[in-house]
Amino acid sequence: MHHLLPLLVAVPLLGAALPAAAGRRLPRAAVEITGFVVSGGTGALALLLLLNSTPPMTEWVGGWLPVGGQSVGIVVLGDGPALGMATLASLLTLAALAYSWRYFDAPPHGHTGAFTALMLLFQGAMCGFALAGDLFNAFVFFELMSVVAYALTGYRIDEARAVQGALTFGVVNSLGAYAMLMGIALLYARTGELGMSAIGRGLDAHGGPDALVLASFVLVMTGLLVKAATVPFHFWLPDAHAVAPTPVCMLLSGVMVELGVYGAWRVYGTVFAGPGGIPAADLTRALVTLGILTAAVGAVMCWYQRHIKRLLAYSTIAHTGLFLVGLGVLTPEGDDGIALYVVGHAAVKAALFACAGVLLDRFGSVDEHALHGRARSLRATGVMFAIGALGLAGLPPFGTGLGKSVAEEAAGGPLTVGYVLVSAITAGAVLRVTARVFLGLGPRPEDAEYETSGSGEEPETGGLLRRVPDTMTTVPAVLLAAALAVGVAPGFGDLVARSVNEAGSGGAHASAHWTAPGVLLGLAATALAVILAALAVTRPTWLAAPSWAAPLRRLQSGHVGDYVAWLLVGTTLLGALALPGVLGG
Amino acid sequence: MNRLRLWLLAVGGTGLAALLVAACLDLPRFGGRSHPYGDRAVHASLRRHIANTIASVNFDQRAYDTLGEMSILFAAVLGCVVLLRQTRDEHRAPPEPAEVARPVRRYALLVLPVALVTGLYVIAHGQLSPGGGFQGGVVAATALHLLYLGADYGALERVRPLGVYETTDALAVSSYVVLGLAGLLAGTAFLANTLLPYGTFNTLSSGGTVPLLNAAVGMEVAGAATVLLAHFLDQAVEIEDATEEEPGK
Amino acid sequence: MSHAMDVLPYLVAAYVFLTGCYGLATSRHLIHAVGCLAVCQSATYILLLAVGYRAGGTAPVFSDIEPGSRPVVDPVVQALTLTDIVVGATVTALLLALVLQIAKRHGTVDPDELRELRG
Amino acid sequence: MADAVIVVTLLLTAACATAAVTQRDPARQALVLSVLGVVLAALFTVLQAPDVGLSQLAVGSALTPLLIMLSVRKTRRRGRSKEDRE
Amino acid sequence: MNGWILAATLALGGGGAAVLWGVTTGPPARRILAQNLATSAVCPALLLLSQGYGRPSYVDLALLLALLGPVGTLVFARLLSDDLAGERPSAWGLTWTAAGLGLAAVVAACAAAGPGRAMVKLLVIGVLLIAGNVIASRALAGGFRRVGGG
Q1: Based on CB atoms within 10 Å of each CB, which residue in A27, B180, C4, E112 is the most buried?
Q2: Membrane-spanning regions, if any (chain E) (predicted)?
């Protein structure tokens, strides 16, 4: 069975390359059907492997089995989290492809399959990154993922904002990747190994942590946290996610950002968790601090957006912060909760982006102010948008609610309040949009000075849609149903918990199921979200941007140089946060 | 210049610099003897009769990385095709034929075959001497563009049917994957180099599947580099939008 | 001298990386910024190869020397650097393609004048 | 002796990198980058990595500067034709 | 002590410093000339290094540089032709010095290698290097009517 693991990368690659080779003569339908079959087939394979991932599998590519515990080959991991992320990425790619069925008006001349091929490459890259058990191999797939994502983000080259967002995305992420590679080189110098667990053993054999371990930790984490859009590495995300084509946004916000978080979890757990790595207290300090900052900045910025896709992008940042906090406390329960949260969030966020895409193609705008009351006729979309908002708030029995309640219990104390507030604010912002755009409630809000409006966008289809195609409404509906199923399906939580704990957490087992406090907190967050949205719609002046929010918004300057400077500050911050234990050790 | 950015840069740069310098002082000294993975790789390469250990690492021991690398190149080509496509508000204006001084023309046309042969030589000797599919592929692709230098863009376009190069590129990626799958079907593992005999050390056919994978990479790179350059040349020389006028005014 | 030599290559790599970052942050032209990114990347090549160097060693390519006759440097970092160079070239190409489109759609390549995405 | 050549090429590389960053005009930067490519190839040779040196020569001294120059030409051509019309 | 490596160090150090100074200062034509000089300084150094390390296979690097270096310079000259208009820096002294350096390196390497396939390769490199160098220099110095155009 384990021999099949590399197929999760190979099949999508072949599926992207063969149509490109057969190329120019293939009709569009044939290319799109190939895309479905390949993407779905890979998803099915990932699912099959996932169901057989107890005990965890490993595969040495090229048959270079270790001799005396050492190998010259590359190891691919087939444990629960790795295959789970691969499955999630595959299924979401399938959803995005279904959503974009007959969608873009004009594929490049002679390259009908380019979009499908890029999506398949993206899928292969995400699977490869999720399965990577070798640090340099992880870097390669990380770069593949990035390169495809830049191209997909800038796909609509007619749009000034799209190409600008894609370039910012490209520069910041590439710099992060190079930082990561510097870190890998430092680790290789110390241990002479590239496999993650081999590096971990090498560090432990060398003794306590020193400056080199700290620097390599900071550099590798920089790369991963840039992808995970952690404050202060997050600036590229709203610029890129707000402008990418909708099906791409579904993938970027739904899986790619989460893969950064997953990578940080994996790398810490296998490389730096031993006695030669970064002490647990330091990691907790670093991740929880950055996580809280990220969640707070994301939530505040989310609330003050009028560009709907940008608003959703900031809510992704806010939730990434929550993921980091949950992983940062380093308990098995925290890991379980976040795993469930990520799955639920992916489905909900993708569904919300899909609904925003419907607005874009129907009205040529994703601006909350300009669309005020105009989408009353889109009842189904409106209902789904509202349900998505409730899912974001963590209303039981959504999967997000289950994950959040487990993570809240693991984090405990004041962090619980953070979880409730952040999910309530982001959900409240989405509910506010629902109320204004789909119901036309409240007065039309006034424009602020320093912001990105969502008007004047080009629809992604050939001209404005008169009626919304069935695929564009079915996909979000299915995704929302999936988010519900994650929370409702009996035993699913425990299944996830078991496979996560088998892969990490040092043998400790926890279970994940609904508890009374969790349900109550979920209900509280939802209630708070509804109240916030109601206040915002009926009394706009009460919740208008206070003066302290203005500098925060001004930081998001759209200038790539600023973002690079922030990236450097971020590495310093990360180093400072993790420093005490290294000095002590 | 923005004051805030300079401050951030100063703080972040100082912090990162301190971190990196501290790490450098903890690194094993330059030129040290301990390279466990490297030593294992050399032994593994010799066991498989591959003279160039780097080729062995690239196309055998860590062939999976090279698969990712090829995909990156393939993705970049697809990406550039998408990003540099001709939009509705642009048109093509064939450039005027350029006057090229005769010595330059002669030089370019003489060097062209030499460069092509060198490219092929570098690809073919990949598993023996320094070089390989990647290096040779770029040289071969560059060689083609000597036509632009020696004649003009029109001449280059005539010998450069882009579709063929794009197909080559995609076919090469596919064949790399298919070679990998063959290992899987033979019952060993993905990208396992166990299908073919390892041959005599230091000959062109040594190393099992390594020469095949190397050739696939060479084809891919040559195709990809040509297509990439073609799209940039198109943009720089031919494609114009409404705001542009004829060149040479 | 010999002590300086122990760390000099690593320090050069760190210096090149930071220089590239400085250029990237203060760039006034997007094509220049992409060039600076390429400089940042060359730091990774230097670091990787410096890590794999062995004093008195030669390349582990046995077409013109007998295996085992001379000490050899680490081949793995060289393979990694090769991959890295390809990655660098492709990223440069893609980013330049994006810069060209920015020049078309915004009419400028000065990052200070790109003021659409903010807040 | 072997160290002297490494030191010289390392310092040259650092100087070239600095020059590549401080040349603010992209066309001039492309020239420096191509020199940087050649110097890096020499550095890789003295670090006993001829394979890497070859690909750095192919990419760094030919492909990347060419791509940059083509981009510069395109952006300049736009700038010029715009000025002409104004 | 290895005379080959010492010579290569001197070529790299001296040539490199001169190239760097030339490529960062002065008018565009001078910069391109300096870029061309990079090829003619580093290529002989690579030949010398190949001898110094006792590795004939390193010669491929010099071959590639001798092939691609002048091509790169000519491409720059063509794409920057507008900036070059009116400038005619002639640097014949420099050009012939560089050519002499290349010739000396090739001859020395040939003498060390002795007759055979290796020598043919070295001669090809020498021809490519010197021809490319001279052509590129002449093109830049305005020796030809025009190198510009579409």
Answers
A1: B180
A2: 61-80, 92-113, 120-141
Whether E148 shows a pLDDT value over 60: the answer reads no
On whether any CB of chain D is under 8 Å from the CB of B233, the answer is yes
pLDDT of residue C2: 59
**Amino acid at site A102:** R
Q: What's the rounded Cα separation, in Å, for the pair E44 and E25?
A: 25
Question: B239-241 and A74-78 as β-strands: parallel, antiparallel, unpaired?
Answer: unpaired
Instruction: Give the tokens for residue E52.
Output: 């110094």
Q: Which tens digit of pLDDT belongs to each residue from E38-75?
A: 999 999 999 999 999 999 999 999 999 999 999 889 88
* Terminal Cα-to-Cα distance of chain C (whole angstroms): 52
Query: A294, A321 in Cβ contact below 8 A?
Result: yes
Cα Rg, chain C, nearest whole Å: 20
CA distances (Å), B107 to each of B61, B98, B152, B156, E99, in order? 42, 16, 14, 16, 17
pTM of the model: 0.95
The phi, psi pair for A77, rounded to 5°, reads -95, 140
**Cβ A577 vs Cβ A289: under 8 Å:** yes
Nearest CA to CA, how far is B127 from chain C (Å)? 9
Identity of the residue numbered C48: L
Q: What is the pLDDT of residues A304-345, one digit of tens each?
A: 898 999 999 999 999 999 999 999 998 888 999 999 999 999
* Cβ separation C65–E53 shorter than 8 A: no
d(CA C4, CA A185): 20
Cβ contact C98–B37 (<8 Å): no
Average pLDDT of the segment spanning C79-105 = 93
Neighbours of D76 (CB within 10 A): 18
- B–C contact: 3+ Cβ pairs < 8 A: yes
* Chain C residues inside the 8 Å CB shell of D43: 46, 49
Q: Do A553 and C119 touch (CB under 8 A)?
A: yes
- Report the C-alpha gap between D45 and D5 in whole angstroms: 10
Q: In A364-463, which residue ranges form alpha helices assigned H by DSSP?
A: 379-393, 399-411, 414-433
B60, B72 Cβ separation under 8 angstroms: no
Query: Domain extents for chain E?
Result: 3-86+99-140
Using CA atoms, how far apart are residues A135 and A77, in angstroms rounded to an integer?
12
Contact assignment for D54 to E16 by CB distance below 8 Å? no
Q: Any chain C CB within 8 A of the CB of B16?
A: yes
Query: Which of C41, B213, E57 has its CA nearest to residue A62?
Result: B213
Structure tokens at A502: 């088998």
Which site among B19, B53, B78, B81 would you substitute to test the C interface, given the most C Cβ atoms closer than 10 Å to its Cβ? Answer: B53
- Residue A579 tokens read as 């420093």
Query: What residue ranges do the domains of chain B occupy?
Result: 35-241
What is the percent of chain A with per-residue pLDDT over 70, rounded to a whole number?
96
B194, amino acid identity: T
Enumerate residues 6+ apart whose C-beta is below 8 A from E114. none
Name the neighbours of E, counting chains with at least 3 Cβ pairs within 8 A.
Answer: B, C, D
C2-113 is classed in which CATH architecture? Orthogonal Bundle (1.10)
pLDDT tens string B156-189: 888 788 888 888 899 999 999 999 999 899 888 8
Q: Which residue has the tokens 């450098």?
A: B24
Q: Are D34 and E72 in contact (CB under 8 A)?
A: yes
User: Quick count: other Cβ atoms within 10 Å of Cβ C110?
Assistant: 11
Closest Cβ–Cβ partner in B101, B103, B130 for E146? B101
Residue of D6, D12, D21, D57 best to disrupt the C interface, most CBs of C under 10 A:
D21
Report the chain C residue with the minimal C-alpha distance to residue B62.
Answer: C79
| Peptide linkage before A81 cis (omega within 30 of 0) | no
